[in-house]
C-alpha cells in the first residue's frame, strides 16, 4: 500500500500491535527522518523575524471583499534561526472570536516556545455592517453559508434566526441584507476563506523555513468545522500531517472526509450540546425530536443548541479510518484505550474507535466539560498551558511522508 504518512517509532500503530491498551508516545520534536524544507529555507538573506506574537496581513483576490487583504497572527519561537526547518501549526479560532483571543486561550504559544515550532493564527471574517468591530468573525466552511447540500437547504431547524446576513452573502444573493437576521440555514460570511488559506500556506512556506512534512492544524467550534473542510480541500488537505478539531463536526449533508490519509484526533466535551459528538448529547428540546429521518446520516444526526444538524463524530472519523488503513469502517463495540499522562484530568480519556491504523492514527478524546477547551475550566492559566502541551504530545511525532514513500516495517 502506498502511504501518505510517516509515523515515527513508538507511535500509536506500533503500540497497538503490542497491547489492547496503548500508551501514546511522549511529547517532543519528531526525529530527523525525512524533513521537507520549504522554499523559505533557501531565502537565508531575509532577516530573521522578531520572535514572539505579531500581526500581519496578506493580499488575496476575493471579489466579495471590500479590500484585498486578510489578517493573521504569527508566533515565532526564540529558537528559530531561519536555516533549520521547523514545524508549522495552524490554529483556527471559533465563532465570535479572532486571532488574538485564540492566541491567548489555548496555550499554543507556550508549547511553540518550548518545542520550537511556528504558530499561525488566521483571522476569520465578520463583514456584518451592523457590527463594525467584527465580533461576528466566523469561517465559511461547507454548509455554513446557506448553499444547499446533499439533503437540500434545510440543514437546521426553523428556529435559526440567530445569525446575521453578512454583506458578502447579500452581494452573493444568498440572503436579504436589509433584514437583521437570516431566514435560512446560513451562519457564516460568503468570502473565500479556502482561497485565503491556500494563499496563506504558500506565503508562509515561502517566507519561513518550514518542515513541510510537519504541518498540523487545530481549531475550536466553527474553527474546527473549517479545519475539517480544509482536510478535504484538494490544495490544503495534502499539506496537512494531522488535525485536532475541538468541539467540532461536519454539518449534516456535507460529510466529505480527508482528501488523503492524515492523522486525526477529535476532542469533545461529554456535555457539549452546541456541536454534540453524538445523538444522546443533542440539545435538550431537540434530543428526541431532531432532524427528519430523510436527512439523517448512517448513525442519525446530532442537533446543536442553535438548531443546526451535524453528523455524529464517529461517522466523521469513519471517513478517516477508511483512508488511514484502519481494520474497521465502523467504531468497535469496545474501542482500544490510548493512555497518556493527561488521563483523568477533568475526565480526559482517549480511544482508537476503529482499532490500530497502519497509515495514521484515528483517535477520539473526551473530557467532562461542555463546549470549551479541556482541562481545568475554572483555572484558565492551567487549562491553557495544558492544551498546548497535550496537542504537541499527540501530534509532535507525526510526519507527512511523500506520496512515493511506503510505511516502514513496524518493530514490536
From TrEMBL:
The keyword Secreted applies. Keywords: Carbohydrate metabolism, Hydrolase, Polysaccharide degradation, Secreted, Signal, Xylan degradation. GO terms for cellular component: extracellular region. Residues 1-25 form the signal peptide. It comes from the Eukaryota. PANTHER family: FERULOYL ESTERASE C-RELATED (PTHR38050:SF2), PTHR38050. Its main location: secreted. It is found in: Secreted. The lineage of its organism: Eukaryota, Sar, Alveolata, Dinophyceae, Suessiales. GO terms for molecular function: feruloyl esterase activity. The keyword 4Fe-4S does not apply. This is Feruloyl esterase. GO terms for biological process: xylan catabolic process.
Amino acid at each position: 500500500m502506498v502511504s501518505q504518512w510517516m509515523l515515527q517509532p513508538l507511535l500509536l500503530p506500533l503500540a497497538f500491535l503490542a497491547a489492547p491498551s496503548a500508551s501514546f508516545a511522549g511529547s517532543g520534536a519528531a526525529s530527523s527522518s525525512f524533513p521537507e524544507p520549504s522554499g523559505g529555507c533557501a531565502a537565508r538573506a531575509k532577516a530573521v523575524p522578531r520572535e514572539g506574537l505579531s500581526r500581519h496581513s496578506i493580499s488575496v483576490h476575493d471579489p466579495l471583499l471590500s479590500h484585498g487583504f486578510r489578517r493573521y497572527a504569527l508566533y515565532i519561537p526564540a529558537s528559530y534561526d531561519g536555516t533549520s526547518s521547523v514545524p508549522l501549526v495552524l490554529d483556527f479560532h471559533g465563532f465570535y472570536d479572532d486571532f488574538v483571543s485564540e492566541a491567548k486561550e489555548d496555550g499554543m504559544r507556550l508549547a511553540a516556545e518550548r518545542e520550537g515550532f511556528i504558530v499561525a493564527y488566521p483571522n476569520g471574517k465578520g463583514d456584518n455592517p451592523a457590527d463594525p468591530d467584527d465580533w461576528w468573525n466566523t469561517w465559511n466552511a461547507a454548509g455554513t453559508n446557506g448553499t444547499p447540500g446533499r439533503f437540500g437547504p434545510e440543514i437546521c431547524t426553523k428556529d435559526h434566526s440567530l445569525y446575521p446576513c453578512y454583506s458578502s452573502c447579500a452581494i452573493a444573493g444568498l440572503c436579504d441584507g436589509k433584514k437583521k437576521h437570516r431566514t435560512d440555514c446560513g451562519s457564516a460570511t460568503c468570502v473565500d476563506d479556502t482561497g485565503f488559506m491556500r494563499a496563506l500556506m504558500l506565503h508562509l512556506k515561502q517566507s519561513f523555513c518550514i518542515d513541510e512534512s510537519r504541518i498540523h492544524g487545530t481549531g475550536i467550534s466553527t474553527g474546527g468545522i473549517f479545519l475539517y473542510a480544509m482536510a478535504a480541500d484538494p490544495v490544503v488537505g495534502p499539506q496537512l500531517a494531522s488535525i485536532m478539531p475541538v468541539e467540532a463536526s461536519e454539518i449534516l449533508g456535507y460529510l466529505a472526509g480527508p482528501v488523503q490519509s492524515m492523522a486525526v484526533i477529535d476532542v469533545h466535551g461529554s456535555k457539549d450540546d452546541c456541536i454534540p459528538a453524538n445523538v444522546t448529547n443533542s440539545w435538550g428540546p431537540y434530543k428526541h425530536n431532531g432532524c427528519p429521518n430523510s436527512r439523517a446520516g448512517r448513525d442519525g444526526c446530532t442537533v446543536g443548541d442553535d438548531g443546526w444538524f451535524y453528523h455524529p463524530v464517529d461517522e466523521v472519523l469513519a471517513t478517516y479510518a477508511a483512508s488511514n488503513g484502519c481494520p474497521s469502517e465502523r467504531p468497535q463495540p469496545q474501542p482500544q484505550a490510548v493512555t497518556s499522562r493527561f488521563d483523568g484530568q477533568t475526565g480526559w480519556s482517549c480511544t482508537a474507535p476503529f482499532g490500530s491504523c497502519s497509515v495514521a492514527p484515528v483517535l477520539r478524546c473526551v473530557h467532562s466539560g461542555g463546549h470549551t477547551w479541556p482541562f481545568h475550566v475554572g483555572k484558565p492559566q492551567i487549562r491553557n498551558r495544558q492544551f498546548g502541551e497535550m496537542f504537541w504530545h499527540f501530534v509532535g511525532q507525526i510526519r507527512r511522508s511523500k506520496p512515493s514513500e511506503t510505511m516502514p516495517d513496524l518493530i514490536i
